[in-house]
Amino acid sequence: MQILIGLSTKDYNILWLRYMVNFRYILIVSISFTLLSNTFLHAQDKVERPNILWITCEDMSANLPMYGDSTVKTPYLSKFAEQAVKYTKMYAVAGVCAPSRSGIITGMYPPAIGTQHMRTGTGNEKDPSIPSYEAVTPPEVKAFPEYLRTAGYYCTNNQKTDYQIGEPFTVWDDCSKDAHWRNRPKDKPFFAVFNINETHESMIWKNANRPLRVNPKAVKLPPYYPESDVIRKDIARYYDNIILMDSIVGSILKQLEDDGLAENTIVFFFSDHGAALPWYKREIYERGLHVPFMVRFPDGKMANTSDNQLISFMDLAPTILSLANVSLPKHFNGQAFLGNQKAKNPRQYIFAARDRLDEHYDLVRTVRDSKFQYIRNYQPEKLNYMDVGFRKQMPLMAEILKLRDQQKLDSIQSRWFKNKPIEELYDVENDPFELNNLAQNPVYAAKLQELREVQNNWSLQIKDKGFMSEKDMVRLMWPGGIQPVTAKPVAQITTQNKSIQVSLSSSTNGASLGYKIGDNGSWQLYHQPVAVKKGIKVYAKAIRYGYKESEEIMISTN
């Protein structure tokens, strides 16, 4: 197979035009979710379904004591680490939240499903001819909690989404600031997500007036930053926010213990991508992708151990379904690393992408093995630095720009404001700050060639949407710039053994259906005919990810 780096501009256009056609084909493939449910999601009787709790935080690298950073104490997470398995090589698929979270919830690489840009709903921050849009994913793609709900789980999210596909009502039983496992029916296992916002980038300036518990003089400056009191203070604030986040983790874990659920709940802790600092967040270097990740099992399995295998956020959806004893759909891009469907062979590589960030475009792809990271800059004419307006609210960022203008940055610090090489190769094991680019070193020519081919083949395999313009991609998703509308459900009523059965379908390929019984019911995910009593009203609606929700229908059972 010819590799991308050797293609001419004309060849590129032909190649990616072909994949645009393939993508159009994917969008019109019809896969019935009812069939998908019957094939993959049949909730077998007497199958063990453990409770699963995710505690997630934002914009934080592995700056925690159990990962070797003793800047601050985190008593709750440190105790949790003693009870958990610590994964040392977990990687996000993007260095920024929305693409990363779209990958987590769907189990698909963002460039494979058109969710690679940060973010889809920003309107005039980018080309005003591109509307704020919700990405239309291929019809087989479902948020993995739908599989759990079909298997009988009560699924809650408190409360951030940022999935790039809108907020389909079929994904969660409850997605709100009040969402909690405590609201579940007593006979259901739960999958609950709590997202902690306190470490988000914005909290560095929003919390600026809070008493600072971290001594700025005690923080270690990475080589990317010059000596400055302003910079030290913001880094100290980043660590102070980690202390605050840790206390919230402790509160959630205490609620679990108070409810008597710690002994039958698998608990995950992780961050959505790297640190909330300039030249960390939004990057796909090690510092933007590597995150803390720990899992605690109720029986103490693997407690206080480390696991050094390469794993990716693509592996989260299959792993959760594997732990929940739900069959894995074949379209997932990742593989399970726990549970009864654990992959036989560990990963050799992890992949990530960088595309539009707010108002600025870039196109970068990366692959990493256990030791080396390869980065391909498809637009090397652009600077490493993106002049993203949002982060300019951070004093640290303003200080770096001021020192740049005063020509007070050294050769390492000023690299951010220079053009990028076409290729980068780093020995991350021996060069953790990724300062020494080995791409031109003949000693590493074989490794460069290996990872170059792996990255190119990956982009070809997933039919990487980053290689078409966002305008063309949105044109395929929303013809004429208008959001497609999901067809309203069609109901079929039958009577069996004096029970009324309501069956639902939608003519929209890939639509998920929901129903509620009675005027005061809550929306349930439809996956099999619903039994109701005569005279009870049933309401239904449908949603295809990226489409507008269908019209709601009322079904009379008189």
Would you kindly provide a brief summary of this structure?
Helix 8 runs antiparallel to helix 11.
What's the layout of helices and strands?
Elements: H1 9-28, H2 33-40, E1 51-57, H3 75-83, E2 85-91, H4 97-106, H5 110-113, H6 144-150, E3 154-158, E4 174-175, E5 190-196, H7 203-206, H8 229-258, E6 265-271, H9 286-289, E7 290-296, E8 305-307, E9 311-312, H10 316-323, E10 350-354, E11 364-368, E12 372-377, H11 395-405, E13 423-427, H12 445-461, H13 470-477, E14 490-496, E15 499-505, E16 512-517, E17 524-525, E18 530-532, E19 538-543, E20 553-555
Parallel strand pairs: 1-5, 1-6, 2-8, 2-9, 3-4, 3-5
Antiparallel strand pairs: 2-7, 6-7, 10-11, 11-12, 12-13, 14-15, 15-18, 16-17, 16-19, 19-20
Helix pairs in contact: 8-11
